[in-house]
Amino acid sequence: MELILWRHAEAEEGDGNIPDSKRRLTARGQKQAKKVALWLQRNLPRKRTVLVSPAERTQQTAHALELPYEIEPQLGLGASAKDLLKAAGWPDRGGAVLIIGHQPTLGRVAALLLGGEEADWPVKKGGIWWFASRERDGGTQTVLRAVFNPDFA
User: Fold this and answer.
1) Scanning 14, 40, 59, 109, which has its CA 20 to 30 A from the CA of 77?
2) What are the φ/ψ torsions at residue 29 (nearest 5 degrees)?
């Protein structure tokens, strides 16, 4: 299985008048999403599922990819690392799962997969962390395949 974590691109700041779930991408965020989407379109496996948080900014990020996606309530604001991994079916689901979500959840998942315990690791706005699980020596291993962010596109 492959698990791709994509943090939503840059969004407008919350000012108290707009609910956090309704914050939208900035013009810069829209450009970031398009750059990363182009990279993903070239690299995503054919067998894939795209799961997106219900928040407006994650859905806008997903639109840049121009692929079908499912809104997954378990990935919403305040989701835990375990919620995300359960929604993704990690590590047993076949194919690839692309999750478009939020900090600090994505960083906590990255820390858990690579370090064995949750920690508040930073994931850049619009950034991708791509993991794979594999069987080796009778056990399951997690491999970091790529880290990519809009500044490199």
Assistant:
1) 40
2) -60, -40
pLDDT of res. 109: 98
Query: Hey, how many other C-beta atoms are within 10 angstroms of the C-beta on 5?
Result: 24
Tokens at residue 32, please? 């970031």
Q: Give the Å distances, CA to CA, from 114 to 38, 96, 146.
A: 27, 18, 13
Domains of the chain: 2-152 (3.40.50.1240)
Tell me the per-residue pLDDT of 112-134, one tens digit each, with 9 for 90 and over.
999 999 999 999 999 999 999 98
- What is the pLDDT at residue 97? 98
Determine the Cα–Cα distance for residues 121 and 104; give it in Å rounded to an integer. 8
Ramachandran assignment for 16, one of left (phi > 0), alpha (psi -120 to 50 degrees), beta (any other): left
What is the per-residue pLDDT for 153?
65
